[in-house]
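dumping this here so i dont lose it
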C-alpha cells in the first residue's frame, strides 16, 4: 500500500479566496435583486434593488480604500494626462428643482466621465495593487449603471462633444481623481437612489 499524501491548502491562499468572495458579494447581491425585480410575478410594487443602500455603501468604502492606497503609492501610480471629472458639490435648491430624469442624466453623465477617467488611469498605472483597486472601481460603476437601468431610467448616451465646462472640471493627479470618485458616490449618486426609490432606511 503506497503512502497517501494529503494536501492542506495554504492559509494565505484560503484567506485570499475569502477576500475575493467578500469583494464580489455586493455586485452579486445587486444583480440578484435586479433579477428578482424582473422575475417576481404578480407584484404591484416590485422590490427595488439596493433599497437600503448597503451595496452602494460598500462601493463607497471600496472607493475610499482605493483613495487611501493611492495616497501611499510612491511608484507606478500616476496619471499621464489630466482628465475631465464631474462636479461633486450639490446645490440642494437646484437639485430639488430638477425632475427625476434630469437628476438621472446628471448622475449618469458623471458616472460616464468617471469611467472614462478611470480607464485612462488603469492604462497608465503599473502598480499591481493600485490596478486592482481601479478595476474594482470600474466594475462598481458598471453595477451602479445597471441599477439605474433597473429603476427605469433610460440608458445614458455619451455626448458627441465635450461636456460643458459648467458640469466638469479637470484633475491632473490620480489622488484627485479617486477623491472625486468617492465624493460623487457619496453625493449625487446617493441622492438619486434615495429620491428614486423612496426607501426608508438607515444611511451610514
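and the seq i came up w/
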Amino acid at each position: 500500500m503506497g503512502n497517501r499524501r494529503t494536501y492542506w491548502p495554504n492559509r494565505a491562499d484560503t484567506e485570499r479566496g475569502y477576500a475575493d468572495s467578500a469583494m464580489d458579494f455586493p455586485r452579486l447581491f445587486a444583480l440578484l435583486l435586479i433579477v428578482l425585480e424582473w422575475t417576481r410575478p404578480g407584484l404591484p410594487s416590485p422590490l427595488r434593488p439596493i433599497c437600503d443602500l448597503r451595496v452602494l455603501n460598500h462601493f463607497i468604502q471600496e472607493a475610499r480604500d482605493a483613495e487611501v492606497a493611492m495616497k501611499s503609492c510612491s511608484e507606478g501610480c500616476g496619471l499621464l494626462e489630466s482628465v475631465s471629472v464631474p462636479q461633486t458639490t450639490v446645490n440642494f435648491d437646484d437639485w430639488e428643482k430638477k425632475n427625476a430624469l434630469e437628476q438621472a442624466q446628471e448622475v449618469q453623465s458623471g458616472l460616464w466621465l468617471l469611467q472614462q477617467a478611470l480607464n485612462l488611469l488603469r492604462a497608465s498605472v503599473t502598480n499591481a495593487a493600485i490596478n486592482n483597486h481601479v478595476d474594482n472601481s470600474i466594475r462598481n460603476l458598471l453595477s451602479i449603471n445597471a441599477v439605474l437601468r433597473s429603476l427605469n431610467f433610460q440608458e445614458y448616451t455619451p455626448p458627441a462633444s465635450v461636456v460643458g465646462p459648467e458640469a466638469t472640471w479637470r484633475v491632473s493627479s490620480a489622488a484627485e481623481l479617486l477623491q472625486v470618485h468617492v465624493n460623487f458616490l457619496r453625493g449625487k449618486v446617493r441622492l438619486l437612489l434615495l429620491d428614486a426609490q423612496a426607501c426608508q432606511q438607515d444611511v451610514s
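Residues 11-39 form the longest helix (29 residues).
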